[in-house]
Inverse folding.
């Protein structure tokens, strides 16, 4: 059967690796005589494939997160309308929510569908129940499921039948990403360029690279990319005191030119290929927050296994990173360019790949998904909210369908529902790394280092001031423990007779006047007191211990002890003061 038209369904497909891959595929489909129609959300308008004048039609719709019955009905209506109006031959989808929609439309209109599994779409589903739905109701009925790396293909065998699972590597336009572009640059900036989205997947690697680059003496970092965690990254830079070290360019469409303006490149996946094709040194940023080293001829094949993300390679420590930076000039960039041209160049390759796609496009009957959709519509109101978290959807609708299948599948489903009851059984990759991300621009303190100690007993009288010399601390945050051993001679005291006031460095300057990110202290409206803690003295000797958690680069300069509403002739004796700093 000749397939003359394709509907490509896009969601959350903004500028980036997915967009670049789709650009190559769209051109190849058209070159093969297949009319291309696009359906996507607002972000699709930013992408070059959507502005391709050879595309027949681009429809923008409010697809949103298609995980409620109403949103699924709405999105399905958009898909089916385009298929019927344009006599579409097959559907091609790039997002997990749209895999499900495409499978329903395929069955209802009897047209085949194919999907491509991307790293983020495959691993960061909204709910693990979505894995179950896709594995049992979608993947087996797709005419083709494509992956972009051997590692992802291996993982996908757990979910998709091997009979319709195929590997198609990411490819790079070696004519666009060409070392000749360097001839147009008069003066190369010594800073390094990161090309990356600033999102959940990429964030941990971005943070670690900035930390290593700063400590290795790289003059600065420039980021070409945008995303939902830009403000979070800027916050970490502020806490580390290196806001000016990083420049944000936002999303760019001229990366092929931009890479030649800087000394070297850092990124992951397709960016590694693009930099290598441009004959620029490129450092691989790990998804887990580690740095994987530089692309070289001798590690090229191993990096290719995971789509050049180095997920199966050890992280570099700072010393190893510095060593590799100092040897960047030894990398054989010519050989790397040659390897990319041989196996990863878009030239003729996308046309060949798309030609293979078309040979697999045969419709597969999928009665179960039709029943699933009909029941979803029938129980729309009782389902309430997201289908993947709805007890009605999981325990009644899907269960009824599973009962029609083999007995072992019903047992498997019951076991799966049991696992879902324990949310700790499932984790989202990268979430822990984002939570723990810090930019560490100096060596950490020795745990519990004593930075002040005095056992010279003194009476408080007009006050006691403890001046701290600058101490070694972790600039991304640290803890100070203040111990005070003291007593009041008054035997009947109902209020706190002493106050501890904490002053930070440059407290009289504009910079010091800003609010510090501190826990364990209160803030007084009295400027002479600032951050403080009441000390509830007793009429016998007692040791008080206060932990002050400092979450930014602030540093305590002075601790002042003062009488506070003490009786007129009350004597307060301080036997010991000790200050420790912790990581």
């Amino acid at each position: 059967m000749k397939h003359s038209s394709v509907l490509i369904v896009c969601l959350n497909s903004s500028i980036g690796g997915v967009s670049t891959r789709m650009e190559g595929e769209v051109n190849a489909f058209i070159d093969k005589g297949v009319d291309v129609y696009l359906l996507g959300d607002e972000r699709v308008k930013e992408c070059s494939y959507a502005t391709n004048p050879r595309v027949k039609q681009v429809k923008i719709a409010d697809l949103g997160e298609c995980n409620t019955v109403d949103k699924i009905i709405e999105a399905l209506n958009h898909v089916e309308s385009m298929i019927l109006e344009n006599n579409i031959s097959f559907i091609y989808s790039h997002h997990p929510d749209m895999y499900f929609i495409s499978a329903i439309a395929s069955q209802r209109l009897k047209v085949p569908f194919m999907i491509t599994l991307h790293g983020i779409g495959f691993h960061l589903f909204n709910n693990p129940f979505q894995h179950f739905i896709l594995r049992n109701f979608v993947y087996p009925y797709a005419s083709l499921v494509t992956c972009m790396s051997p590692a992802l293909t291996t993982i996908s065998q757990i979910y998709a039948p091997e009979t319709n699972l195929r590997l198609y590597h990411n490819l790079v336009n070696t004519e666009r990403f060409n070392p000749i572009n360097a001839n147009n640059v008069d003066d190369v900036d010594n800073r390094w360029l990161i090309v990356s989205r600033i999102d959940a997947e990429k964030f941990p690697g971005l943070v670690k690279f900035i930390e290593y680059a700063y400590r290795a003496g790289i003059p600065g970092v420039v980021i070409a990319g945008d995303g939902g965690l830009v403000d979070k990254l800027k916050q970490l830079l502020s806490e580390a005191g290196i806001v000016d070290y990083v420049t944000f360019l936002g999303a760019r469409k001229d990366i092929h030119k931009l890479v030649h303006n800087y000394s070297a490149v850092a990124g992951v996946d397709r960016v590694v290929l693009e930099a290598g094709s441009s004959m620029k040194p490129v450092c691989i940023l790990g998804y887990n927050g580690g740095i994987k080293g530089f692309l070289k001829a001798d590690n090229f094949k191993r990096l290719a296994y995971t789509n050049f993300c180095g997920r199966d390679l050890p992280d570099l420590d700072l010393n190893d990173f510095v060593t590799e930076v100092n040897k960047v000039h030894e990398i054989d960039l010519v050989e790397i360019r040659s390897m990319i041209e041989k196996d990863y160049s878009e030239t003729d390759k996308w046309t060949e790949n798309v030609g293979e796609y078309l040979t697999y496009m045969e419709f597969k009957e999928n009665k179960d998904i039709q029943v699933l959709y009909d029941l979803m519509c029938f129980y729309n109101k009782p389902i309430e909210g997201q289908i993947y978290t709805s007890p009605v959807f999981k325990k009644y609708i899907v269960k009824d369908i599973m009962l029609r299948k083999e007995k072992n599948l019903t047992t498997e489903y019951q076991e799966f529902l049991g696992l879902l009851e324990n949310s700790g059984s499932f984790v989202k990759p990268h979430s822990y790394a984002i939570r723990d991300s810090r930019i560490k621009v100096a060596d950490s303190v020795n745990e519990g280092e004593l930075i002040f100690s005095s056992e010279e007993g003194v009476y408080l009288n007009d006050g006691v001031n403890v001046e701290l010399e600058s101490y070694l601390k972790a600039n991304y945050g640290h803890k100070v423990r203040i111990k005070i051993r003291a007593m009041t001679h008054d035997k009947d005291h109902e209020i706190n007779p002493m106050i501890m006031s904490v002053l930070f460095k440059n407290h009289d300057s504009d910079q010091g006047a800003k609010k510090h990110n501190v826990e364990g202290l209160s803030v007084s409206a009295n400027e002479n007191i600032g951050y403080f803690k009441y000390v509830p003295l007793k009429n016998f000797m007692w040791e008080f211990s206060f932990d002050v958690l400092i979450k930014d680069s602030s540093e305590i300069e002075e601790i002042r002890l003062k009488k506070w509403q003490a009786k007129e002739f009350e004597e307060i004796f301080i036997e010991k003061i000790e200050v420790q700093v912790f990581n």
